[in-house]
Structure formats: C-alpha cells, structure tokens
Amino acid sequence: MAKISLEEKIKKTLLDSQFISKDALDKAIQIQKNEGGLLSKILVKQGAVSEEQLMSCLASQLNLPIIKLSKYKIDFEVLKIIPEQIASHYLVIPLSKIGNTLTIAMADPLNIFALDDIKSLTSMTIKPIISTPDEVKKAIRIAYGGVNAGVMDMLNEAGSGQESELEHVKGEVQMMQVDEKVPVIRMVGRIIDEGLKQRASDIHLEPYLNILRIRYRVDGELQEAFEIPKKYQNALIARLKIMSNLDITERRLPQDGRFKVKFKDKEIDFRVSCLPIAHGEKIVMRALDKSNLSVGLEKLGFLSEPLEAFKRAVLKPYGMILVTGPTGSGKSTTLYSILNQLNKPKVSLMTIEDPVEYQLEGITQVQVKPEIGLTFAGGLRSILRQSPDVIMVGEIRDSETADIAIKSSLTGLLIFSTLHTNDAAGAITRLVDMGIEPFLIASSLILVVAQRLCRRVCSACRREYRVPMEVLKKLGINVKEEITGYQAQGCKQCNNTGYMGRMGTIEVMEIDEEIKNMILAKESSDRIKEYAVSKGMKTLWENAVKKFLAGQTTIEEVLRITSE
Fold first, then answer.
1. In whole angstroms, how far apart are CA 122 and each of 46, 51, 79, 117, 454?
2. Among 244, 298, 370, 411, which residue's beta carbon has the most beta carbons within 10 A?
3. Can you give the pTM of this predicted structure?
C-alpha cells in the first residue's frame, strides 16, 4: 500500500472538514504547478481557507499544539537564542528552553529548512508549536523591538542606558533639569525618544494590576511596546505631570497639559491627557509636529482633482468650509495646513478649539473652557468682536455654535470647521438635524470635504501580485484585464506592519446652485450625493481605489478606511 504524503493528508482533511471546496483546492494546486510556492500560502491568498482553519488542519495532522501568542508572556532571556533576523526570515519565535530542548512557535511548521537552520544555529533539539503568521509577526515586533532592550538598561540603575536624542526647549518646562542618571528620568526620556523614532502619533501609559503597559500608535494602529514593573508607575506619572505643568498631588480628577521637546532639530509639541482609572492614572501623550503643517495641501497625499476644488474654495472671500470624518482622520492637520498658508500679516486669523492642538505664531488661538462658561458658542461671539477675517472653529458640536458660525460666514467671514459624519453629503443632513434653517445652510456653505487617512504600503517589502478579475468585479473596480497590486508584507523598516506612513484621501463636494435648491427642498443626503457624483464628484471609495491602482496602498486598506 502506497504511503500517503503529508500534503495529501492535509488536502484530505481540508475537504473532509468542508473548510474548502474541491474546485478551490484544484485551482490552488494548478497555481502551485504553474508558479510554485507553498500550497498553504496559495490557499490563504486565494481566500479559499482562513489562516486559523489551516492552522487547525495542520495541528491535527502533525499532532502539534496551537498557541495564541498574544496571551503568552515571552521570556526575554530565551529571545537571545535566535537572532531577530532569523526569527523574521522564518517567522519563528523562541518560547522556552528546558535542558537542551528549545520550544519555538512557527507560522509554517512544514518549513523543514527553517527547522534545520535553527537546529544548526542553536545545537539544540527543536520542538515546534503552531501559530498564525500575523500572531508570529506581531510577537516578533513586540519582543525584538529595540525598546525592550532600552528599558532593561534603564531598569538597571548601575547602567548608563542609551543616550536620548531629546532636548528641552527654552522657555518651556525644563525636561532634563535633574540628574540624567536618575533611572525614572532616563525611562521617561527613552519612552518619548523611542516613540518618536517609531513615528508614533500617540504614546499610551496604561496602569494595570501588576504592570504599567506602554503602547505606541503608529500610522493609526496601536502597537504594544513593552511593560514596566508596577513599582516605577507613580514615579513615571509624577515625572510626566511635572513636565506638563500639572498638579502632581491631584489623582482623582482628569487633567490636561502640554510640553515641548527638541528631537532631531525639530520642535515637537506634546499634548498630555491624564485620566484616573482603576489601577492608577492613564496618560496619553499626543505628538504634534508643526513642521508637517508648513508642507501645504499638496503634500498631504490628496489626488489632484479633488485638491483643485478644495483650493478654489479656500480662495473665496467668505462662506463656510466643512471638513468631516471620524476622530483621527486628519481633519485638524488639513485645517491647520490651510491656516498656515493663509497666515499673512494682512489677514486676521483666529481659532477657537478644544483643546488648542498646534500653537502657531501669527494666529490668535482661544482654548474652550466650559467649566468657567467659555464654550464654543460664547467664545465665537467674543471672537466676532475682534475683527477677524478667517475663523477656524475646532468642532461644531451643537446647534448654537452651528448657528453663530453660519451667520458669521454670511457677514463676510471665511469660516472653517469640522463635523463627525461619514461622507460629504451627510454634513448637510447633520446641520438640518441640529435645527439650522435650510436657507441659511444653502446661503453659507461653499464646500464640504469628507476625509480619511490611508496607510501607505511599505515600498521596501511590498509584494507584487496579479489581482484576479473576479476579485476586481466583486469590489466594483471596472478594468478590462487583471491588474498588478501590492500586498503588505512587513520588514524591519516598517516594524513588520507592512505599512509606512499615511496619506489623506478626500471626497470633495462643491455646493453649486442645484445642490442649494436641493437643500432648500430638504432632499435626502443620498439624493444630494447621487447628484454630486453625476456632476463628477469622486467618492471616498473611488479616491482610495485610485491610490490602490497607483500602487500606493493595498486593497485591504481601501476596504478598511471606506464605509462602502
């Protein structure tokens, strides 16, 4: 009786368990014959089977356990056995060492070359465990991240640790005013330093029962950096409060502050939020790099066609321009970039915000303080008596603010503001729902922009592939033949995420006479959007697809950021 190969057993198990159809399996086998490669990877790429289903099948046939790495605490001493380069290349991570046996988690337990190389490298008996590629990539990123080694240095009071690239800014709170050899000072410096090196927009310090967890938000996605022993928690938080000019004795109420640092010859503002929670105080630091605002709208990644419509509206002498989108979609950066371009000695620019994000010279900025009665509406009334030419209202949250802003735009002022809506046409419905008269909206509104931030696929490790016609048709992308797309892979340069940086994607709706009539007739947002599209407006989805077709991003990212 002929011996059945492992691959045949896996095929049979997949069919028996009804994970995939015979047609899908045959198609994958044909691709393997034509192009080569692992059958498992082809099946996942074709969408015939999920990684979890494939892991389950492999585990049953190879009699290997499956591990959820996100729930596993990795021993940093064991990590030293396998270099990061080998771990990333073979998608493996060492978990434990007992005697001469090394247990490793593998994304592909069928990779005999990986097992042989690691056995030769370590001179140990290798015991594999299965995990999904995404789990292994994430574990490698967290475990081998340079931050961990730095924190280990900082926790060793005798060691000097790595030199920080941060400097305090004169006139601001002195960051480094005490002995740099004090471990807590070095720890805070390294946390901020590493966050900026990894291009983090936010740094989270989160107290738990036994540890203080540090996470960085990079390109919109939170990534675990490291855990710090609980005994350092209060000292770290106190240090950050001193830097942010906050009350270190107040632990029951939320507080907001800010500080500045100099990093690689750039001045970075940090907006700090402190919130009392169950196991201490959570601190979130938002990094605000003013140099990003001087680049202009052209450098924010928008496509040329919607950008031209945006620029035409900005040059108008009066009216209202709204930028809509969810939190973290880049609305503030876009508006500040416009203000920076309009910032000339002959123009009076004023803003009312909660909080003031970027502090810009030449612009009068007002911070909302509801606890003393300084609301958006009240502040806006006062600003109107200060003879402004352009006003930026941080956010329209209520009918009173909306009413004052719209009426101000009718008196000869250019007003910019933001709203939380899914698309451009939805902003009109939102204003009507707030109780604003349609004739006021029609008279004042000149442009509505819906915005999202789309991650750029990493150019160093992106993988080219032919996108099948059936996939394109299913997604409503009309092309005559298969096209070349890119898939995110992950490398050291992009921290194994597959993406490097973000760009803006916008949907721009110009308010013409017909849309004004539709607003007056109280037409639905769907009808208004339908008309705008017929007149040439490109939706968020269409703009994002263009970026995919241009090779700037992935189809997964397009699907993530659009609401279609």
1. 36, 29, 12, 9, 42
2. 244
3. 0.68
